[in-house]
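Encode chain A's predicted structure.
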Amino acid sequence: MDSSRMVPFILMWGIPIFIVMRAYLKLDTKDRNSAKKDFKTPNFIFTIGFLIIGLFLAQIGSIFSITIVNLIGIILLAVGGIVAGIDMWKTSKGKSIWVLLFTIIMIYVSYG
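Encoded structure for chain A:
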């Protein structure tokens, strides 16, 4: 286990999760149901969902030196980035290239 990576990991994932949960709890019932409905769409799952889950798994695998978890995370990250790039290509080709570039950088950093 690489303990020097634990503090940045906890800060990087803990603070946003805390902020999102706090904002979610402040929503009224109608807005909560709308948020749940949005999170269950295939577009969200295969783009943002795969990117977030992939990065999380890749970092967990890297911290605990579990190669298979790291590899699964990188695969999910790659699939999410490719799908997000293709989905965004319809509206903005420039932003699509940036999404693919940042995905490649995240994969490189996660694998190292």
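The first helix runs from residue 6 to 26.
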